[in-house]
Amino acid sequence: MNLADQTQAIAKLLISRGWKIALAESCTGGLVCAALTELPGSSDWFERGYITYSNQAKSECLGVPVELIESFGAVSEPVAKAMAQGALRNAGANVGASITGIAGPTGGSPDKPVGTVCFGWTIPSDAGQFVTHTQTKLFGGDRQAVRQQATKYVLAELLALLGTH
Predict the structure, then answer these.
(1) pLDDT for 39-51, tens place per residue?
(2) Domain count, the chain
(3) 24: left (phi over 0), alpha (psi -120 to 50) or beta
């Protein structure tokens, strides 16, 4: 499914439930927000986007504990989880999603090579609470390719999660 079809499908699911989404992006620098807001009428279901590139921004804007970043690193599932939950909470949205990663060409390590991207999705559960899913992927290619693959992936997984709830 291409990016435009993904965003259309996400919009329809959010609208049908009366939900709004908030996003927290790091390595994608707003590409996901841009893809979603490309659709006319997106203000009906898109609440807010946070571009939190620095660790300080992750803490100040999203409430990610500094200790979490120090313990696991900014590119980690615990930080992605806290970012998604913080975006949802701060925006008063129904759905939150996050991306944090190493787009390159520098910044990688043996444990977290360039192309490592961590994702978080916070959605309502059937029990009326929120559940957060996280995942880590390794994408290939240059900086642009990593960012584009991460954008498409976060939306594909969001669509899958929304489709099951």
Answers:
(1) 999 999 999 999 9
(2) 1
(3) beta
